[in-house]
Amino acid sequence: MPKLSVIVPFYNVQQYAPDTLRSLRRNARPEFEFILVDDHSRDDTPRILERAVEELSDVASVRFIRREENGGLATARNTGLDAAEGEYLTFLDGDDWLAPGYLGDLVTAIEELGCDFVRTDHIQATARARAVFRAPHGRRSEVMNPRDAILPADRSTSVDYPYAWAGVYHRRLLDKGLLHFTDGLRTAEDRPWIWKLHREAESFAVVSLMGVFYRRGVAGSLTQIGDVRQLDFIRAFDQVIEETAADPQADRLLPKAVRTYCAIIAHHLSEIDKFEPSVAKQLRTMSAAAIKRMPQELFTDVLDTMDLHRSSRLRRLRRRATTAKAAA
Predict the structure, then answer these.
(1) Residue 255's Cα: distance from chain center in Å?
(2) Which of 89, 139, 212, 298 could be a cystine partner for 258, CB 3.0 to 4.6 Å?
(3) Tell me: the pLDDT tens digits for 79-136?
(4) DSSP 8-class letter at 149
(5) Where are the alpha helices (DSSP H) in the chain?
(6) Is 168 helix (H, G, I), strand (E, B) or coil?
(7) Would the pTM of this model clear 0.90, i.e. be above it?
(8) Separation of CA 26 from chain center
(9) What pLDDT, in 10s, does the model give residues 293-319?
(10) Residue 33 DSSP symbol
(11) For the range 244-252, what are the long-range contacts, defined as Cβ-Cβ under 8 Å and sequence gap of 24 or more?
(12) Residues 294, 258: contact at Cβ < 8 Å?
């Protein structure tokens, strides 16, 4: 069994893939396996990966899987998970990169702590600028119950830091069905994933380890494009609400889920001008319907405690939904 499986999906990233692959080589060990998943790229990415397999095979175990159709990041990660054989697992996106030696430090951290999963800080790279982003959890290198890191509802917590690549996970989580993503989600795929992880895993810790460089502002990434795929955040958060509502501690956890959902809706409404007109119309309609599906008492509580700009957008949306229902 390999010590660590690193799952790396790629899609149309020929400009960035060489940096990603060089960083893997600088982290390679014979007991590590790199699973390179091409999500049916239409540029030169597959050929770059084919060459990388030959170059990396002398320092680590490497598998190259090319999907026959594009399924999105969630599905590509699942493809890698299905092939992974490591005792521990982690992720990297095909346009990001790692500091030398980071993966070894990551394995050391989870082995010393002996918990289900470990979360780390990361570095955001925007052009030449670098900014440190820390996991929103103050207690470091201390094993805790993941549920205790979901709350409080009115502050940024561990479920608001959903990046799958900012951490390492024991294989027992995969065996329990906690590491797979919802197939087909094109955005916000990590939101139901991180909530499920914190509700159902037994132990976790956060360590002050930085080695992932998260590239922002990439042309062609979903954060830069206002097309219909962005609206998958609604399906993702509907799943969060539905699964959390079924939890034995729903009364404690649902206020956080509803508040986060509302904040994300308000965020997208604040950037509605970046969407194509037809998608902007869908965003308003689908968001209004999502608000109607929420527990209304909790939704009202959120409006009463949110800042004016966001609460005003949500109130207008609720009025729109009420007016449309009355007209119908």
Answers:
(1) 21
(2) 298
(3) 999 999 999 999 999 999 999 999 999 999 999 999 999 999 999 999 999 999 999 9
(4) G
(5) 17-25, 45-56, 73-83, 102-113, 171-175, 190-200, 232-245, 250-270, 277-293, 296-305, 308-327
(6) strand
(7) yes
(8) 25
(9) 999 999 999 999 999 999 999 999 998
(10) E
(11) 244/195, 244/199, 245/295, 247/199, 249/147, 252/151
(12) yes
3-state helix, strand, coil in the chain (%, to 5): 50, 15, 35
pLDDT tens, 197-215?
Answer: 999 999 999 999 999 999 9
Please state, in angstroms and rounded to a whole number, the distance separating the CA atoms of residues 256 and 119.
20
Helix-helix angle 308-327:296-305, to 10 degrees: 140
pLDDT at 89: 99
Residues paired with 91 in a beta bridge = 7
Structure tokens at 182: 């919802």
Residue whose structure tokens are 């590491």:
179
Q: Which residues contact 150 (CB under 8 A, 6 or more apart)?
A: 157, 158, 159, 195, 198, 199, 253, 256
How many angstroms separate the CA atoms of 163 and 131, rounded? 16
Q: CA-to-CA distance for 179 and 189, rounded, in angstroms? A: 12
Which pLDDT score is estimated for 217? 83
Residue 139 clears pLDDT 80, i.e. is over it: yes
Instruction: For residue 223, give the amino acid letter.
Output: T
Residues near 24 by Cβ (< 8 Å), separated by ≥ 6?
A: 6, 8, 34, 56, 60, 92, 98
Pairing of strands 204-206, 117-119: parallel
Residue with tokens 């990590």: 190
pLDDT for the residue 226? 67
Using pLDDT thresholds of 50, 70 and 90, give the confidence band for residue 327. very low
Tell me the three state secondary structure of residue 110: helix
- Residue 17 region, left (φ>0) first, then alpha (ψ -120 to 50), else beta? alpha
31: which 2 tokens?
């007991």
Name residue 246's amino acid.
A
Instruction: Tell me the C-alpha distance between 240 and 261, whole Å.
Output: 9
Helix (H, G, I), strand (E, B) or coil at 311: helix
